[in-house]
Amino acid sequence: MAAASVTRLHPDSDHELHHIYDSRIPVIGVGEGSWPSLVQELRRLTGLSHETVQQRLNGTRKYGVSFEGWGRRNRDFTHYFTPQQVSYAYHLSADSMAELLHQSARARHVDAKVLNITRVEGGAQVEFEGLAPERYDLVFDARGFPAELHPEQHIDISFIPTDTAVIRRCPAIVKGEQEGPVLQPTYTRAVARPHGWIFIIPLTVHTSYGYIFNRDVSSLAEVESDFDAFLETDGVAEFEQRAVIPFPNFVHRHIYDGAVARIGNAAAFMEPLEATAIVSAQFQIGMVLQMRLNRSVDYLERDAPVVNRFLVNNMLCYGLIVGWHYSCGSRYDSRFWRRARDHVWPRHRKAADPRVVDCAALGKFDDMIQLMKQSVIDKSDWNRMCAVPLTSYCQLSQGLGC
Ligand SMILES: Cc1cc2nc3c(=O)[nH]c(=O)nc-3n(C[C@H](O)[C@H](O)[C@H](O)COP(=O)(O)OP(=O)(O)OC[C@H]3O[C@@H](n4cnc5c(N)ncnc54)[C@H](O)[C@@H]3O)c2cc1C
User: Fold this and answer.
1) Cα of 11 to ligand 1 centre, how many Å?
2) DSSP-derived pairing of the beta strands 250-252 and 240-246
3) Less Cβ crowding at N or C end of the chain, within 10 Å?
C-alpha cells in the first residue's frame, strides 16, 4: 500500500522507489475486514472501477459488524458504518489485495532480508543480508509485529484481554455473481463465546472464521473443542485449519521520526474486533506522505514529532475503543469474560495515562463517553470523532448496555 501510494502521489516521476521484502518470511495473510475509506483508496490507487476492484478482491460489501451475545443486555446489535446502510467497506481476500497493489506500484522489487534500519544525516540507511547497504530519503518499515515488546519502545495495551487467534476456512456462504460484483449487504459477525469470540467474514470464494482468545486463560484444546461445537450449530460441515497466530497488543512510541515511518503491524497492533489494521496503515502512510510531499523540508524536524504524536494518539484511541467492548461482559459468565471485564479493561487508565504515553488519547476517549452521558447532545457535537465517529460510540454503548 505504501509503494502504491508513493507511485501515485510523488510529484517527481524521476524518483527511485525500492520495495523490499524477504520471500522467506511470509506475510501474515489474514486481514479480511476493512473500513469504508479503503473503498475510495483502492479506486484511487489502482485506477480501476469500484466494481472491478471488488471482484478482484473476491470481495463482498461490509456495512458493519454484527455483535452476538456481547454486553450486559443480552441483546444482539449491529455497529453500522456512518451513514448507516449507505457507507460500506470490503470483506476482501488479503492475498488478492496485496497482488492488486503490487500491480499499482512502479518500484524495483528487492528480495532480501533487512538487518537494520538506522537514521543518518538527511535520511535512513538500510543494511541487508548479502547486499551492500543503501541510503534512502524515506523508509517505510513494514516488517510486521515485533518479536517482543520493550517498554521504552512500545506502549503495551494489554487492557485488551486476548492474544491468540485460531483461523479456519469454510465454504462460501455468499456466492459470487457471474457478472458484476455481489451487491447484497454483508456484515462481519462477532460472536461471543465462553473463551473469547469468533469472527465470521463472508468472501465470495470462502468464509473465514477466527476464534480469538487468551492462551493463559484457555488451552488450545478447549478453544478448538468450542470452535467445533460452534461450527456444528452454525451448520458448517467442513473446514480447513489454517493457522494459530499469537499476537501482541501494542502501539509503537516512535511511529515516525522524519526519515523512518513504521506502518502496519510494525507500528501498532490490536486484536481484530473492529478490523482497525488496514485503516491504520492508510492513516500512517497518508499522514507521512502528505507532510513529506507537501511541506518544505525546512519544517521536517518540527513536523515529525507532531505527526508521530497524532499517529500514536489515533492508534491508542483505537485500542481504547476495542478494549471498551469488553467492559460490560457478555452472555457468558466464564473465567475469560469475568477476567476481561473486572480485571483487564480497568487497567486502561494506567496504561494510557498521558504521562506514560505522551499523548491525550485517554482524555479524548473520556470526553466521548461523557458526551454520551449528557441528556441532550447538542447538534454542534454530532460530528465529533475520537478515532471513530460519535455515532459508532453511541451504537456500541447502547448495544453493550454501558
Ligand atoms: C487474527 C487476525 C485477524 C486480522 N484481521 C484483520 C482485519 O479483519 N482487518 C484488518 O485490517 N487487519 C486485520 N488483521 C491485521 C493484519 O495482520 C494486517 O492488516 C496486515 O496483515 C498488515 O500486515 P503487515 O504488512 O503490516 O505485516 P505482515 O503481513 O506481517 O508482513 C510483513 C512483511 O515484511 C517482510 N519482512 C519481515 N521482516 C523482514 C526483514 N527482516 N527483511 C525484509 N522483509 C521483511 C515480510 O516478508 C512481509 O512481506 C488481522 C490480524 C490477525 C492476527
Assistant:
1) 28
2) unpaired
3) C
Dist CA 137 CA 139 (whole Å): 7
Chain center to CA of 365: 18
187 sits in which H/E element:
strand 185-193
Ligand 1 proximity of 34 Cβ (cutoff 6 Å): yes
pLDDT surpassing 90 at residue 243? yes
Residue 245 Cβ contacting ligand 1 at under 6 Å: yes
Cα 227 to chain centroid distance, Å, stands at 23
pLDDT for 177 = 73
Instruction: Find the range with the poorest average confidence among 8-12, 39-43, 104-108.
Output: 8-12
Dump pLDDT digits (tens) for 57-68: 999 999 999 999
pLDDT reading at 304 higher than 80: yes
Peptide bond between residue 161 and the one before it cis (omega within 30 degrees of 0): no
Give residues with Cβ within 8 angstroms of 306, minimum separation 6. Answer: none
Whether residue 126 has its Cβ less than 6 Å from ligand 1: no
Q: What is the pLDDT of residues 177-226, one digit of tens each?
A: 778 899 999 999 999 999 999 999 999 999 999 999 999 999 999 999 99
Q: What is the pLDDT of residues 228-238, one digit of tens each?
A: 999 999 999 89
Amino acid code (one letter) for 177: E
**Which atom of ligand 1 approaches the CA of 210 most closely?**
1
Mutual angle of helices 94-103 and 37-46, in 10-degree steps: 40
CATH 3.50.50.60 domain extents, the chain = 2-318
Instruction: Evaluate: CB of 189 within 6 angstroms of ligand 1.
Output: no
**Cβ–Cβ < 8 Å for 209, 118:** no
Task: From the CA of 264, give the closest atom in ligand 1.
Answer: 26
Supply the residue whose CA is at minimum distance from atom 34 of ligand 1: 143
* Span from the CA of 143 to the centroid of ligand 1 (angstroms): 8
Average predicted confidence (pLDDT) for the chain: 96
Q: Does the C-beta of 21 come closer than 6 Å to ligand 1?
A: yes
Cell numbers for 89, please give them. 467497506
Query: Could you tell me if 211 and 196 are in contact, meaning their C-beta atoms sit under 8 angstroms apart?
Result: yes
Q: Of the CATH numbers 3.40.140.10, 3.50.50.60, 2.30.42.10, 3.40.190.10, which one belongs to the domain with range 2-318?
A: 3.50.50.60
The position carrying cell 511511529 is 255
Rounded to a whole number of angstroms, the CA Rg of the chain reads 21
